[in-house]
Specification:
- The chain is α+β, with helices and mostly antiparallel strands.
- It has 3 domains: 286 residues, no CATH class; 101 residues, no CATH class; 58 residues, Arc Repressor Mutant, subunit A (Orthogonal Bundle), CATH 1.10.10.410.
- It contains 15 helices and 16 strands.
- The chain has a 9-stranded mixed β-sheet with strand order 2-6-7-10-1-11-12-13-14. A 3-stranded antiparallel β-sheet has the order 5-4-15, with no helix packed on it. The protein has a two-stranded antiparallel ribbon with strand order 3-16.
- Strand 6 and strand 7 form a beta hairpin.
- Helix 2 packs antiparallel against helix 3 and helix 7 crosses helix 9.
- The protein is elongated, with a radius of gyration of 30 Å.
- The N and C termini lie far apart (66 Å).
């Protein structure tokens, strides 16, 4: 019997507003415990929440960027459950009238592109955080309520994913889109992006879903992929052995690379949803929605397609360069400063990203204009590609322009035919065995001779001229 997995993700993205969703408390990460709280986010009696307008704007932006339909009418609800980090014993969320529905994003895995449906995107407040510790040989749990009331969007996918790799790419795309529109810093280490997995398996070709299991406690994209791969195998093995899959919540153990049972899965009615009485419905005009749509930047998929058509880049290059907005901006700034698109792409992906990651490319000592200046020296034949790499390292250290470094250190490329021929004659005379080996059909001998010529000129000879003139003389 052949099985296939059916996977859906619930992604919580923390919006990067300065203040919380229903009060004016700060959302800064890393502040001392319980220093960013007030009666509203603590849920004390008699307080009234007020919706942060910036949360609404960023939520609508996120929905539009994910190709969702924005509701003209939506509302907040109370989701009732007791947990130590939820002081009100309910969470203000959205249930039957979410702000966004019917979205989609495009992912590419192993060269195949698929559309993954998004059921809904809704606004809600975050809970606090429990901190478990051991003191005086006793395990204790403490609560930090700084995070209570921090604004979230929850993005619920359709059960369209079919592998751990697809889930990984889906999360990468969500992260990319949220950063492009400046809705979140999507930092998993700081809890700005959290993910729960819903997964079942069924016989391939069957229409009905198998019994769903939820996986929580996933703190990285790699953990999401690994937990899915493990759970697929676990469920298949259980079914083949005659065991019934239970609807439950399981946790992921990063150290042991296994999931384990936490509790029976709750149903929606367990939360006793009812409309939030202290908040009015959200009523949006078409003009408001269109105004936000007009303010969105060019999104990654559109930018990728433009890079292919406008700059003639391969699909792979375009995908890498548009994976982060700052990286795409850096590339286009280099083009604007006069770089050849493909040469700039090659250098950014190989040399620039070797010394800085895409998230911090704006901090690179070699800014786009300086990179363009370096690449022009290669295109003009002033320096070779090999020397350019040395110059680039010097630029990183000193912050100086490439032309100044080349002139000061005398790194100009030798393109004088007579000078190169003189070196070639000298190398041929000193390496007759290699000459005979090449004439005998050993191609490696040619590379050796070229290497000796470049060594004699300290890498300054024009490589193309060296090879052409050497072959003429060997003939």
């Amino acid at each position: 019997m052949v099985f296939e997995p059916v996977i859906g993700l619930e992604v919580h993205v923390q919006l990067n507003t300065v203040t919380k969703i229903f009060c004016s408390c700060a959302t800064r990460f890393g502040s001392p415990s319980n220093t960013q709280t007030c009666p509203v986010c603590l849920g004390l009696p008699g307080v009234l929440p007020v919706l942060n307008e910036e949360v609404l704007r960023k939520g609508v932006s996120a929905g539009l960027a994910l190709n969702a339909t924005i509701a003209n009418y939506s509302k907040f609800d109370r989701k009732n459950y007791f947990y130590p980090d939820l002081p009100k014993a309910y969470q203000i969320s959205q249930y039957d009238k979410p702000i966004c529905t019917n979205g989609s994003i495009e992912i590419t895995v192993e060269g195949k592109t698929r559309q993954i449906g998004i059921t809904r995107l809704h606004l809600e407040e975050d809970a606090g955080k429990l901190i478990h510790d051991e003191r005086n040989r006793e395990r204790v749990s403490m609560v930090d309520l700084n995070r209570a009331g921090v604004p979230l969007v929850e993005i619920v996918s359709e059960p369209d994913l079919r592998s751990g790799d697809e889930a990984y790419e889906y999360l990468q795309k969500i992260k990319t889109v949220m950063k492009y529109i400046d809705a979140s810093d999507v930092n998993m280490e700081e809890g700005s992006l959290r993910c729960d997995v819903n997964i079942s398996v069924r016989q391939k070709g069957a229409q009905e879903f198998g019994q769903k299991v939820e996986i929580k406690n996933l703190n990285s994209f790699k953990a999401v992929r690994a937990s899915i791969n493990y759970e697929i195998e676990r469920q298949i093995a259980s079914i083949e052995s005659g065991e019934r899959i239970r609807q439950e919540t399981r946790l992921w153990d990063d150290g042991k690379n296994v999931t384990y049972s936490m509790r029976e899965k709750e149903f929606a009615h367990d939360y006793r949803y009812f409309p939030e009485p202290d908040l009015p419905p959200i009523v949006l005009t078409d003009e408001y929605i269109q105004g936000i749509r007009a303010s969105l930047p060019e999104l990654p998929d559109d930018r990728k397609r433009r890079f292919v058509t406008q700059y003639g880049l391969p699909e792979y290059d375009a995908r890498v360069l548009t994976s982060e907005k700052g990286l795409a901006d850096y590339f286009e700034s280099a083009i604007g400063a006069g770089s050849d698109p493909k040469r700039a792409s090659n250098w950014i992906m190989s040399e620039v990203l070797a010394v800085t990651d895409a998230d911090h490319i704006h901090e690179c000592a070699v800014d786009p204009a300086r990179l363009a200046g370096l690449l022009r020296l290669i295109e003009e034949g002033t320096i070779s590609g090999k020397i350019a790499k040395t110059v680039f390292q010097e630029m990183l250290t000193t912050g100086r322009d490439a032309a100044a470094i080349v002139e000061e250190k005398g790194l100009m490329q030798i393109s004088d035919r007579g000078a190169i021929e003189a070196v070639i004659d000298s190398v041929i005379a000193a390496n007759q065995k290699s000459v005979e080996d090449y004439k005998g059909g050993k191609e490696k001998a040619l590379k050796f001779l070229i290497g000796q010529i470049m060594k004699e000129t300290r890498g300054a000879a024009n490589p193309a001229m060296v090879q052409d003139l050497l072959l003429q003389k060997l003939k």
